[in-house]
Write a structure and sequence with these properties.
Helices cover 34% and strands 23% of the residues. It is of the alpha/beta class. It folds into 2 domains: 234 residues, no CATH class; 125 residues, Trna Endonuclease, Chain: A, domain 1, CATH 3.40.1350. Strands 2, 3, 4, 5, 7, 8, 9 and 10 form an 8-stranded mixed β-sheet that branches. A 6-stranded mixed β-sheet has the order 11-18-16-14-13-12. A two-stranded antiparallel sheet has the order 1-6. A hairpin with a 5-residue loop joins strand 12 and strand 13. The chain is elongated and about 85 Å long.
Length: 380
């Protein structure tokens, strides 16, 4: 028998009516679905597992989770995939389901196999998914196909989900953090995230532990939950489309950005982190000093210089920056030039995000904004 999709007469729906009533929710539920990134999966389990295959909006599932899919998903369902990045949970994709069917049907169809590269349709290329060796049981596959065409579902056989490419989102380059602020707004059909979990030793889980514990299994979302998450994704995509016009709005690499978000609770801690790793802003920067007091009493967070000795004044912000930040930077530049008339400093801003007005102004003035916020991997 197949390692994924074992057939059992106890796991089938015997009529199309039962199928519709029990295996498929009429409207279909939205789901929040965890997955392990390919590199971490390979490191943990010793083999490559490219699923979900977000670049083509397909996902295969088998065993007890296959039954979960049949019991919850229908055309029009939205599946929000999330994963672990740098110690935090991020949304990386939304599938708007346009089709789903037993993967056996896909394995029997050359047309579907040529259209999709998902490993559930190409077991010969991914033998580790099939207990080390895939051995085709053609009769089993044909039985699943015949049953499905007759309105019968083998709910434990693996299933393939396909997202509509025009209505789905691949946001791996601009993932959205799933923190308490976002998750507390989700109802999860009356089963919200628990923020007061206590372990067997009586210790309280912190926020990230609560999130990881509660999001480990697939979670069913309400329709309003799904609308909220899709709107957040749409806003982010629109924001990034605008940001692409700004050459001076630059992401800090994903690993360091995640560490700053996770470990730095204030501007002093962010400043210390940047000082120790100044090359994450620019490899040609050399550190000079920090907390530099100027004659008017104002304080420069970090003073650095380029290889050509051009001074660089770096302003650190915890959270988003706005017009007032630019005013600060120009004030520092003005005061520094008064004290050092023969030097011509430039400014940089480090923040989680920036207002559109600030991005636009900095673009025209040539001041670079290095951001560590939710929009990661944008230029990777």
């Amino acid at each position: 028998m197949l390692a994924i999709g074992l057939i059992s007469k106890n796991d089938i729906c015997v009529t199309r009516e039962i199928k519709m009533a029990l295996a498929l929710v009429e409207q279909g539920n939205d789901l929040l679905y965890r997955y392990i990134p390919r590199d971490r999966f390979q490191k943990r389990f010793g083999h490559y597992h490219p699923d979900p295959l977000i670049e083509e909006f397909t996902y295969g599932e088998g065993g007890r989770f296959s039954a979960f899919i049949w019991n919850n998903v229908n055309v029009g369902s939205r599946i929000f995939f999330h994963t672990f990045i740098g110690g935090l949970r991020y949304l990386t994709a939304m599938y708007y389901i346009s089709d789903f069917f037993p993967a056996a049907i896909g394995r029997l169809s050359n047309e579907l196999k040529s259209r999709y590269n998902n490993p559930h349709l190409h077991p010969e290329s991914f033998p580790d998914l099939w207990a080390g060796e895939y051995s085709s049981h053609l009769e089993d596959e044909l039985e699943i196909k015949r049953a499905y065409e007759s309105g019968i579902i083998y709910k434990n056989a693996d299933v393939l989900l396909v997202g509509d490419s025009k209505r789905s989102y691949d946001i791996r380059k601009l993932p959205i953090i799933l923190d308490k602020e976002v998750l507390s707004r989700l109802d999860f059909k009356g089963k919200p995230i628990k923020w007061d979990i206590v372990d067997k030793n009586g210790s309280h889980f912190d926020e990230n532990d609560c999130i990881n514990s509660c999001l480990r299994p697939p979670r069913v979302l309400s329709r309003l939950d799904g609308d909220l998450l899709e709107n957040i994704i749409r806003q982010r995509v629109c924001s990034v489309n605008l940001d692409n016009t700004f050459n001076t709005f630059k992401p800090i690499d994903s690993l360091n950005a995640s560490i700053i978000q996770l470990n730095c609770s204030n501007e002093i801690e962010i400043e210390k982190y940047i000082v120790d790793r100044l090359n994450i802003l620019d490899k040609n920067l050399q550190f000079l000093d920090e907390q530099v007091r100027l004659n008017d009493g104002s304080i420069i967070d970090i003073l650095a210089e380029y290889n050509d000795k051009t001074p660089v004044i770096i302003e650190i912000k915890k959270g988003s920056a706005d017009d007032s930040t630019l005013a600060q930077v120009f004030s520092y530049i003005y005061q520094y030039k008064k004290q050092h008339p023969n030097r011509h400093p430039i400014g940089k801003i480090v923040c989680s995000d920036a207002s559109y007005r600030l991005k636009n102004a900095c673009e025209h003035l040539g001041i670079e904004i290095h951001f560590y916020g939710d929009i990661l991997f944008k230029n990777n």
